[in-house]
Amino acid sequence: QVQLVEGGGGLVQAGGSLGLSCTASGSIVSVNEMGWYRQAPGKQRELVASIIGVGNTNYADSVKGRFAIGRDNAKNTVYLQMNSLEAEDTGVYYCNVDLWEVDSSQYVARAYWGQGTQVTVSS
Question: Cα Rg for the chain, rounded, in angstroms?
Answer without folding.
Answer: 15
